[in-house]
Each structure stands twice: as structure tokens, then as C-alpha cells.
Amino acid sequence: FGDLVTTETGTVYISDSSEPIVYKITEGNYKPEEFLKPEGLFNLQGLALGAENTLYISDYITGVYSVDLSSKKITPVTSEAQLTRGTDGLYFSNGQLYLMQNGTRPFQVAKVDISSSSIEILDRAIPELNEPTLGIIKSGILYFIANSPWAFYDEENNPKSEEWPKLQIRKVNIQN
């Protein structure tokens, strides 16, 4: 699984990065059930709950999409979908969608304004931004792992201790 989000009513949505499937778990039925298997998507990663019955999903290959939870209609969040490719972590706050993009060069953290579909780069091309992956929004600040050390594992998935970088947590003020 790639990510999960929980609604206020306790429903859980889970992305599967090995198959493009979003699973759903509801209270009283704790076995994940297939909720959505979008055609044309390949590698689901981040999930974020938005306003008005909307789930946002990131496909690492093709970009970021909104999903109407009632109709299951999938729509790109911007007409320039290639600008949202490579998104791992995905977060929603105050009409803005925040993207941790480690499938781009340079690595970056971006913001999509949902009302205008415009994209703004918030953090990019700094030494600490080795591979931004996951984060959290708290009190108007986006905190995120700036240098996830995936490249520092050997073939057996053990850390290469002599090369292990010091973990960097960065923050971006996102208050309007």
C-alpha cells in the first residue's frame, strides 16, 4: 500500500502502488474492499481528502487527480498534468493541494490552488531536498521529510550505514 486517509466518519481509503486500486474500509467491515480501479493510471501513491466529497489521488506516472466519492468520476487537478507527475506525498488544506514530488528533477514541493488549477513551487533544488516523501500539516505549517534515504539501501534493503544521510525535516508556512 502507498498511503491512507481517514474520513471524519471513520471510513479509510488506501492506495495500492503495485496495482492502481483504491481500497475502502468502513466501520463494521474491516476487510479492505476495492473502491476504485482507475483505467490509465499505473502507480498510485498519495491520498488526500478535500472538501465537498472529494478524494485526491496521485499517480506517480501520470499526475494528480480529484475523485468525486459519490460518482467516482476522476478529473486531473490541472490541465498541465505533467507538472504533477512524480508526486509521492499529497496533502490538502484550505483549498490548496500540496505535492511532495520526488519523481521530478529537481525534486520539489509544489502547491496546486484547486480553484484556479494553478501550480506554484514552494521548495526546490536545495541540497537537503534529496527525496521529499511524506509530511503533515499542523497549525498552518507543512512539515515534511526532505531527504528520505531510499537511495541509501543496499540490494537486501539494509541501510548503507557509511553513507546514511542525516534526516532533514523542512517546513513551509502555508497560512493564507
Task: Give an overview of the whole structure.
With 176 residues, the protein is mostly beta strands. Helices cover 0% and strands 48% of the residues. The protein has a four-stranded antiparallel β-sheet with strand order 1-2-3-4, with no helix packed on it. Strand 1 (3-6) and strand 2 form a beta hairpin. The radius of gyration is 16 Å and the shape is globular. The mean pLDDT is 90.
Short summary:
By secondary structure, this protein is an all-beta fold. The protein is built from no helices and 15 strands.
Q: How is the topology of this model organized?
A:
Blueprint: E1 3-6, E2 12-16, E3 21-26, E4 29-36, E5 44-49, E6 54-59, E7 63-68, E8 74-76, E9 87-93, E10 96-101, E11 108-113, E12 118-124, E13 135-138, E14 141-145, E15 169-173
Antiparallel strand pairs: 1-2, 2-3, 3-4, 5-6, 6-7, 7-8, 9-10, 10-11, 11-12, 13-14, 14-15
Order of helices and strands: EEEEEEEEEEEEEEE
How many helices? The count is 0
Find the structural class using helix and strand composition.
mainly beta
Strand arrangement across the biggest beta sheet: 1-2-3-4
Q: What's the β-strand tally?
A: 15
* Proportion of residues in helical segments: under 10%
Mean of the pLDDT scores?
90
Shape: globular
Sheet with the most strands, sense and barrel status: 4 strands, antiparallel
Q: Termini, distance in Å?
A: 33 Å
Beta-strand percentage?
over 45%
Q: Are there runs of 5+ residues with pLDDT below 50, and where?
A: none
Radius of gyration, in Å, reads 16 Å
